[in-house]
Write a structure and sequence with these properties.
heterodimer, A: Clc chloride channel, CBS-domain, three-stranded mixed sheet, 5% strand, elongated, B: mainly alpha, 1 helix, 2 strands, 6% strand, disordered N terminus
Chain lengths: 511, 93
């Protein structure tokens, strides 16, 4: 199916969805919408140790994308509908609307803005309601937290559990890509790799049959504290190995359910060492930690286990565990199991969200004031004599109202040409203008849209010319951002006895 | 600088916490059916996985307890009870 249908169906689904969003204008072919679920169903149904959620994300995303392609929409709107479909499929599978929305924001949307958040929530709500009608509203793995009392010592152990889960996540990610490297070196066409992966799965199944398939029953046992040590060790070793090796072979299947199972097994193992809280508590922590470490989405790692079990009282513990794993994973691994695949295709993506520094400054904050201005009736020779090194000069009336602009080059050329001419003869009468209270981001968009590098800035209230803003002026905002990020300084000097460092002069921020 | 005639039609900016317009509501309306169809597709995929599991591991479809998987599982008040060496999925719901 991958070779003759669509190569996009290889792998676990999320990198392909991300790639479609980032490079494909959120366009997914109908062929993928059919082949992906069928290939995943064959893979999982025959014992592949994968989850269905990755293929569901890809299939749901394909549905959203196909509808979007049939409508007159922008690429951003297509992305919103693609992600809406992906998150909806996930919410319907796990009865987890919150986790689906958070996953959409953390992994797929690459923004947190109302324009995409509201439609995604709408779609996820519909999917969850539909799921409730068809399959009920109960959590997948209900856990009782009655009488839960979490001491500071237990919370500290959650940190340790998170760190252990983070290390396991790193190891599993490393194994997936080492396996992919090994398959890449094989002297056979990639079409055969999943067959080799399937043989590895079969061997693993001989050792521990419960490592095969999606394994929701095993996850349920782990989370309710009913797993035996044999099962825990079997899952931890066999599932981790066959999952990472077969995923590296390019078999179609998701990562989430295996990660749940591996994390749950790690936590269950820790539960034999750590104090008892409630049955399955430590499995829950392990699950959250490995999800947080593998997906590098700490909020997804927190909310998913909560929605799967409704163990709401364990929220803080889960947050600690998921964040510890996330911190360790981000420190030690450049890429996650989701993004490494994309990086290997020559793409770079960052998953850090921050406000655009250009959005925090107005044009009036960075403009060059006291601009050299000309009158429209001024002779070109006189105007050229007053020019400085700037590239653009406003042409104004007696009340400093803008009537046009003239460039350095145009004025110089006109001054060298024979015959009397005025500035009005060489000026552009209706130029692109920037208002003083335009943000630098909107100025940069304006410059990009009109292929210009400078523009006059006017006061919006009375139309007076205030100055000129140029492309290089916008670097001030970037410089400010850089200073905030890298410049360390001390403002309070209470600890005077702390040596010479406290008496060092405080550097002024770069402006 | 290649100035083009746009200055006259630009409006002074209106700033707020978010950049959003009524178009968001249109996209939301389109997203609602996407959510419904994606949910059905997701549940259909789960059924397909269950069917293939049934065929591959047990040789015939449709003998499982309602809501439980594989067929060796039985329905219990708390969900599904499955044999310890069950290879696949015990509960889809």
């Amino acid at each position: 199916m991958a070779r003759y249908g669509s190569e996009k169906i290889r792998g676990h689904g999320m990198p392909e969805a991300i790639e479609a969003i980032l490079t494909g204008g959120s366009r997914v072919t109908p062929r993928v919408a059919v082949l992906k679920p069928v290939s995943a169903a064959v893979s999982i149904g025959t014992g592949g140790p994968f989850g269905a959620e990755g293929p569901i994300i890809m299939t749901g995303g394909a549905i959203g994308s196909i509808l979007a392609q049939a409508l007159h929409l922008t690429a951003d709107e297509r992305k919103t509908l693609l992600v809406a479909g992906a998150a909806s499929g996930m919410a319907a599978t796990f009865n987890s609307p919150l986790a689906a929305v958070v996953l959409a924001v953390e992994l797929l949307l690459f923004e947190w803005r109302p324009r995409s958040f509201v439609p995604v929530v709408g779609a996820v709500s519909v999917a969850t309601v539909a799921r409730g009608f068809l399959l009920g509203t109960a959590p997948l793995f209900p856990v009782s937290t009655a009488g839960l009392h979490l001491t500071p010592g237990v919370q500290a152990l959650c940190l340790a559990s998170g760190a252990t889960g983070g290390l396991l996540a790193i190891a599993a990610t490393w194994m997936v890509y080492r396996a992919e490297d090994a398959f890449n070196r094989l002297p056979v066409h990639w079409m055969w790799w999943p067959a080799i992966g399937g043989a590895i799965i079969g061997l693993g199944g001989l050792i521990e049959p419960r490592a095969l398939g999606v394994g929701y029953d095993v996850i349920g046992r782990l989370l309710t504290g009913r797993a035996t040590m044999t099962l825990v060790l079997g899952i931890l070793v066999v599932k981790t190995l066959i999952w990472s090796l077969s995923l590296g072979s390019g078999t179609s299947g998701g990562v989430l359910a295996p990660v749940f199972m591996i994390g749950g097994a790690l936590g269950a193992l820790e539960g034999h060492l750590f104090p008892h809280v409630f049955p399955g508590f430590w499995a829950l922590m392990g699950l959250a930690a490995v999800v947080g470490g593998v997906m590098r989405s700490p909020l997804t790692g927190l909310i998913f286990p909560l929605e799967l079990t409704h163990a709401w009282a364990a929220g803080l513990s889960l947050l600690i565990a998921a964040t510890a794993a996330y911190a360790l994973s981000t420190l030690l691994l450049d890429r996650s199991v989701l993004t490494e695949k994309i990086a290997r295709r020559g793409l770079h993506l960052t998953r850090e969200y921050s406000i655009d520094p250009l959005e925090g400054f107005f044009a009036r904050d960075v403009i060059r004031t006291d601009p050299v201005t000309f009158r429209a009736d001024e002779p070109v020779a006189e105007a050229a004599a007053r020019m400085d090194r700037r590239r653009l000069y406003p042409v104004v009336t007696g009340e400093d109202r803008l009537t046009g602009v003239v460039t350095h080059e145009a004025l110089r050329a006109a001054a060298q040409a024979p015959g009397p001419r005025t500035v009005a003869d060489v000026m552009v009468a209706d130029p692109v203008i920037v208002y003083a209270n335009d943000t630098l981001r909107s100025v940069s968009y304006l410059f990009a849209e009109h292929s210009i590098t400078s523009a006059p800035v006017i006061e919006p209230d009375d139309g007076r010319v205030l100055g000129v803003v140029a492309l290089r002026d916008m670097l001030q905002a970037r410089l400010h951002d850089l200073t905030e990020e890298s410049h360390r300084e001390r403002h309070l000097r209470v600890l005077r006895w702390w040596g010479d460092a406290s008496r060092a002069p405080v550097r002024s921020p770069i402006t | 600088m290649s100035a083009r005639p746009t200055g006259a039609v630009r409006r002074p900016p209106s700033l707020g916490d978010f950049t959003v317009g009524p178009r968001m509501l249109v996209v939301t309306l389109w997203a609602l059916p996407v959510g419904g169809v994606a949910a059905l597709a997701a549940l259909g995929l789960l059924r397909l996985v269950a069917l293939i599991t049934d065929l591959v591991f047990y040789g015939h479809p449709g003998t499982r307890a309602p809501g439980c998987w594989p067929p060796a599982c039985t329905r219990t008040p708390g969900g599904c009870s499955c044999p310890p060496r069950s290879p696949a999925v015990s509960s889809w719901a």
